[in-house]
Amino acid sequence: MTRSTKQVIGQFLTEAVEEARKKLDMDVIPPIYFELPKEKSHGDISSNISFLIASKLGIPSTKVADTILENLVSKIQQSPLFNKVEAAGGGFINFFLNPGAFYPVLLQIDEEGEKYGCSDVGGGRKVLVEFVSANPTGPLHIGHARNAAVGDVLANILRACGFDVNREYYLNDVGSQVEALGKSLKSRYMQLLGEREVDVEYKGEYLVELSRELFEKGERQYKDRGVEFFANYAVKRIREGIEKDLEDFGVFFDCWFSEENLHSSGSIRKAVSLLEEKGLVEFREGAKWLKSTEFADEKDRVVIRSDGSPTYLAADIAYHYRKFNDGSDRLINVWGADHHGYIPRLKAVIEGLGFSPDALDIVLIQLVKLRRSGKPVSMSTRAGEFVTLREVIDEVGKDSMRFFMLMRRSNAQLDFDLELAKRQSMENPVYYVQYAHARICSLLSFADENGLRLRKAKDVQCELLREKEELDLIKVLSFFPEVVEGSARSLEPHRLTGYLQRLASSFHNFYDRLRVVGEEEEKALARLALVKAAQITLQNGLRLLGISAPEKM
C-alpha cells in the first residue's frame, strides 16, 4: 500500500470523524494512526481512533465507532480500493482492501530503495539524545548495554524521520564519587608498594589492573602524588575503556560533555542566579533551595549547599540550560528506571528556566536479568563485580546483543538468555530475521544463475501476485514507514524489532510455500520483484537497529 493509498483512507476517515465530532460534541480530533492487524479477520488496516475519542469524552468506544462508521460506509463505496469497512473489537475501525490497493507499494520500495521508511515528519527540528552517561568509575555493565542500544536506535529512527539529531554522553567526572575512585586507586597502588592498610570503596578488579599499570610505569614514582592525580588517571583510563566498548557495540557520540566544564566555566552559578532572579530560588538554613514544589515536585530541593558547593541538581540545571541554549528544540534523556523520581524536579527546573517542560522526554530503562538456557545467571563472573558489556559482547556478539536489548518495551524488565542469543537456529530471533535476508540473497543469486533477470517493479505484472502468502508479505512491507514513524513518535524502538520478526515470518512463509524459479516467467518475475522489496525493507530495518544484514549464514 503506497502512502497515497493510506492518504485516501486517512482522508475518508478524517472526514467521517469530523462529521461524527459534531454529533459527539467533541472539540479537538486526536491524530489518526493506522496499524497492521495481527488477525486476518480484523482486516488489512485498522485504526484505534474510536478508543482515543472515547477516552477523551468518557463514553463507550463502540458508540464512537458506530457513529464514525455511519459516515464512512458511503465514502468507501466510491473507491475501488475497498472491499468493506467495519467496527469491531470494541471500537476498532477495520478496513478490508482489494488486492489492487497493495501492488503500488512494490513500486514505491523499488523507487525509494534505502530511503524507504524515511520521512520528513521531524521537519529538521533539533533533537539532543543523551544516553548511557554512566559515571566513569568503572566499566559499563549489562544494564548500560540496554541503555546504549535504546538511545542509539532512537537516534537512528529520529534521524530517519527527518529530525536533526545529536547524540551526547554526559560525563560525571567531578564530585564525591570521583574522589572516592581516586582514593581507591591510590590505596591499590600503595598496596603494591607494601602498604597493608587499604581504603577501597571501589573494589573492582579493573582498579587492581589500573594500579598495576601505574606501578609498571615507574614503580614508586607516584607514591607522593595526591588523590586528584589518581582520580584523573582512573577517569581517563576508564573513559577510554567505555569508549572502546561502545564503539565495539556500534555506538558513537557526537559529543562527550564533561560535568567539570560546568564547574570551571561558572555555568552552574549562572544558571542558579537566573532562577534566583525569577524568584524560584530562596536562601534558608544557610543554603539555596529551588522552590520546586511550585512545579508539582514533592518538596523543595537544595541547589547550593551551606558550604557553597553545588549539588548534583545544580549541575543538572546548568547542563540542561546549556542544552537548550545550544539550539536544541527537544531533549531526550535515556535513564535507568531508578531515576523516575527525578523527573518532576527536572521538569520543574526546565519550566523555571523559561522552557516548555514538554520539550523534555525521559525514556526509562528497566533492569536486564541474565539467563543461560532459562536459568538465572549470577551478576558476577569475577568476585565482587557485575557482568560487563564487554563480556557479553565477547560471548554473544554485537548483533545478537543489540537485537535482544531492543525486544521489549524499555520500561519493562528484560530477560536475556545468553545461550539463545548465541544459537544459530530459527529459535534465535535475530538469526531468524538475518536468515530471511540471507535466504533472499541466495534466491536472487539462484534466479540470476538460471537466467531469471530481476526487473524494475514497474516493469512486472504485479497483479499476478494473488496468493495469500504474496499478499500477506506485501501488506507487511507496506507498513514499514508507519512502524518507523510510530517508533519515533512513541520513543519505542522495540516496535522495530517486533516488525522485523513479523516481516521475516511472512517472508519465510512465502519462501516455504511458493516457488520463484521454475514458475511461468511473468509470475516468476513478479515474485522476484516482491522478494527484492522484502530484501530492501529488511536491510533498511536492520540498518536502523545497527545490525548487519548478512548475505550468507
Report the principal-axis shape.
Answer: globular
CATH topology of the domain at 426-545: Isoleucyl-tRNA Synthetase, Domain 1
Main β-sheet description: 5 strands, parallel
> Major sheet: order of its strands?
6-5-4-10-11
Q: Please compute the radius of gyration using only Cα atoms.
A: 28 Å
Distance between the termini: 31 Å
What would you say this structure looks like, in words?
This protein is of the alpha/beta class and 553 residues long. Among the domains are: 3-101, Arginyl tRNA synthetase N-terminal domain (Gyrase A, domain 2, 2-Layer Sandwich); 176-240, no CATH class; 426-545, Isoleucyl-tRNA Synthetase, Domain 1. The protein has helices at 3-24, 49-57, 61-76, 104-112, 142-160, 176-192, 205-218, 227-248, 259-264, 267-277, 312-325, 343-352, 389-396, 398-405, 418-422, 429-449, 468-478, 480-490, 494-513, 521-545, and strands at 45-47, 82-88, 92-97, 126-130, 164-171, 255-258, 281-284, 287-290, 301-304, 330-336, 360-365, 368-372, 375-376, 414-417. The protein has a 5-stranded parallel sheet, with helices on both faces. A 3-stranded antiparallel sheet has the order 1-3-2. A hairpin with a 2-residue loop joins strand 12 (368-372) and strand 13 (375-376). The radius of gyration is 28 Å and the shape is globular. The chain starts with a helix and ends in an 8-residue tail after the last helix.
